[in-house]
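In these records, each integer encodes one residue's backbone shape. Here is one protein:

___
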Amino acid sequence: MYTIGDLSRRTGVKIPTIRYYEQMGLLAAPERSEGNQRRYEKHELERLAFIRHARDLGLSIEAIRDLLALSEHPERPCGEADRIATEHLASVREKIARLRRLEHELERIVACHGDHTIGDCYVIRALADHSLCGKEH
């Protein structure tokens, strides 16, 4: 049996986050000791490690909930898990594309170097007037 502190140390998940996952239904309410201390078994440690890894990959709580539900049926085809991961990958790629557009726009507006005053600063003007931006970002 593990305490909540043990789980936290072994997985790197903070104690308030573990409690949050319990409230969200990702972890079952644990057994309690005579002193009312939470007690977890190995499968809960493994489940928390799964959740942590999924969160590190940016998966939403809902996606993790769905993947956990799927993992309880090892005999089923993995098409649904693949769909969840593929949708998340598409979302990540869209975010990367948006960040690249932001990077290019910021590079463009800071390219004006020199001894300008704030009144002549292109960064300030571009932020005040969206039409000065090169592309949508």
In short: Strands lie at 31-32, 38-39.
